[in-house]
Structure formats: C-alpha cells, structure tokens
Write a structure and sequence with these properties.
It contains 9 helices and no strands. The protein is mainly α and about 240 residues long. It has one domain. Helix 7 runs parallel beside helix 9 (about 220-244). It is globular, with a radius of gyration of 19 Å. About 35% of the residues are buried.
C-alpha cells in the first residue's frame, strides 16, 4: 500500500485496486462540477483561476475525509524539518532558495509574455483567427507549460525547481499590465516579476500552512495560483474602470 497520500507521483493502477481508481474517477467528476460552479460565482467566477481553486477545494475535502495522521487542514507550527520530511520540497524550502528560484523564473516568464505580446500584438488584426492569435491570448500558458513539463523530472527523483505557480502568475501579470502601462516593456516585466516572486514565497507559506503536517496532498501551488490570478484580473478591471 501507499505510505502516504502525499505520494502524488505514484501510478495508482499499480495497486491493483479498482476501488481506488473508482474513487479517483469520482473526485475527477466532482472537480468538473466544482469548476463549473465556481465559474458562476458573481465577480469571482470570471476573475480567477477556477481550476486551481478547485484543486485546493478538493485537496481540503480529501484531508477532511481521508486524513489518517490527522484531519486538520491548517498547521500552526511553520517550522520545516528536512530530515523527518516535514516540508514540501526539501531542496526548495528555505526562503533564500525559494526567492532566487522564483525571481529567475518570474523574470523569464514575464519577459516571454511581453515579448510575445510585443511581436504579435502589433499585428493583432492580421493574425486574428489563426493559431498565432491563440498564442497571443494565452501567452501565460506557454511558460506555465514549460514549468509543468519540468515536474516530470521531480517525479523521476531529480531535485528540479518547481516553478509552474510562478511562471503562470508572472506571465499573466506582465501580459495583462503591458497595455495598461503604455506598452512599457521593462515596467510590465517588472510587475510580472513582482507577482511571480510573491507567488513563489506565498506558495511556501501555503506549503507550511496546509501541507507539512498532513498525510494527504493539499496543493501549495494551486493555493496561490488562484489568489494571484484573482489579484491580477481584479486589479486590471479596477484600473480600467477608473480610467473610464
């Protein structure tokens, strides 16, 4: 059997337990329903990352239902201990390490988003309806996808930086604020970088709040992705509303 519900990289089919797969399927359907429900929440529904919010909600629900070590959702002791496994990522759990990884990946993601917007946005009318327009309107997904693919290295046992929560939020912020700041490239990249670093540091906070004392997985990246996305989208709406 699995030693802990935190072993999320373990293929469950290898357990030869159909009931386990059935529970996974049920929670998958619940995830779809919750996503559709959150989309219909006034104001918040259209200004957040509904999938990340759903991942957090389901993680909390799993802790309450299936937690063995404890069913407590919130921790009060924020100290990490790499030797006992009381941490999220042992190689990425100190504040200086988290800060440097977040800063570097945020700069790259924000720069990528602004570069794509700079090169494609000026020809928006010409690329409308093409595959290039899909990239233009989803520029934050590209750096996120690169980071997400890198998680396979972690699943294989390599101590590889986990940055998808940083890259998606920094790229989104840079992309959304780029036209608001008058297409000032460096200012947009700076704002995206600030959001990325914030997301990286807050992810570690949520790891210590939700994760380190439990034996089920409450996803730290999802915990901050929906918050950072909401901050960015609501800020943009507020600024545009004031401008009008």
């Amino acid at each position: 059997m699995i030693a802990s519900g935190r072993e999320i990289s373990l293929p469950l089919a290898g357990l030869n337990a159909p009931d386990v797969l059935l529970v996974g399927g049920i929670f998958g359907v619940m995830g779809y329903i919750i996503v559709e429900f959150t989309k219909r929440i006034p104001v918040l529904g259209s200004n957040t990352d509904n999938i990340a919010l759903t991942v957090l909600i389901l993680g909390i629900l799993v802790r309450v239902i299936f937690g063995v070590k404890n069913k407590k959702v919130f921790n009060t002791d924020f100290r990490v201990d790499k030797k006992t496994g009381r941490c999220w990522l042992p190689f990425q759990s100190t504040i200086p390490q988290v800060f440097i990884i977040s800063l570097s990946s945020a700069i790259l993601a924000a720069s990528m988003a602004v570069a794509i917007h700079f090169n494609l946005g000026t020809n928006e009318g010409d690329i409308e309806g093409s595959s290039w327009s899909i990239l233009l309107y989803n520029v934050h997904i590209l750096p996120f996808a690169i980071s997400a693919l890198c998680i396979f290295f972690v699943a294989m046992g390599y101590k590889f930086p986990v940055t998808h929560h940083v890259t998606i939020t920094s790229a989104l912020a840079a992309w959304m604020f780029y036209p608001i700041v008058g297409h000032h490239i460096y200012f947009a990249v700076f704002l995206g970088t600030v959001m990325g670093v914030f997301s990286g540091l807050m992810c570690e906070f949520f790891a210590r709040l939700f994760y380190i004392d439990g034996d089920t997985h409450i996803d730290p990246p999802a915990s901050i992705i929906w918050i950072s996305t909401t901050i960015t989208l609501m800020s943009v709406k507020l600024i545009e509303g004031v401008a009008l």
